[in-house]
Amino acid sequence: MTTVTKSQIQSLKHLLAEREHQLRTSIQEGSARSVEEQFEDMAGPVGDEGDQSVADMLTDLGNAVVGHQIAELREIEAARDRIVEGTYGECIDCGEEIGYRRLQVLPTAKRCTLCQSQRERTYAEEPRSRL
């Protein structure tokens, strides 16, 4: 069972709300920019293969950033669900307390430091398609 106090949870809720606002603003601004920046605007009217490659890379990078931001928004929602369920601050692997300091740094943390370290050693590399 977690020993995070109600006032600490309120502080962490505030951190979650701030981060959610930052992410949503960033996604909206990025979306607006991408609508304005068509390939012709980036490469100019006389684009070559190099310009096409740079434009494709910038598009892919922008998509990756947005994907990461959306994943973080999902983590924020999951943290809020754990608050409602009363399991916030409790490690999903071992059930031990996560600790307020760790939650201050990473309010979406769902594992204690020990379990997170073990997970990172076990899954050091994301699985890749072998196609």
Give a description of the structure.
There is one protein chain. This protein has 131 residues and is mostly helical. It has one domain (6-122): Up-down Bundle (Four Helix Bundle (Hemerythrin (Met), subunit A)). It contains five helices and no strands. It has helices spanning 6-36, 39-43, 49-85, 100-105, 113-122. Helix 1 runs antiparallel to helix 3 (49-85). The longest helix is centred in the middle third of the chain and has 37 residues, at 49-85. It is flat. The N and C termini lie far apart (44 Å). The model has no long low-confidence stretch (mean pLDDT 85).
| Helix percentage | 55-70%
Overall number of structural domains: 1
CATH fold descriptor: Four Helix Bundle (Hemerythrin (Met), subunit A)
* The CATH C-level class name: Mainly Alpha
Sketch the topology as an H/E string, one letter per element: HHHHH
Distance between the termini: 44 Å
CATH superfamily: DksA, coiled-coil domain
Profile the largest sheet: none
**Mean pLDDT rating:** 85
Poorly predicted runs? none
Cα-atom Rg, whole angstroms?
A: 20 Å
- The CATH level-2 architecture is identified as Up-down Bundle
User: Count of helical segments?
Assistant: 5
What sort of overall outline do the alpha carbons produce when their principal axes are compared?
Answer: flat
The number of E-state strands comes to 0
Structural class: mainly alpha
User: Strand content of the residues, in percent?
Assistant: under 5%
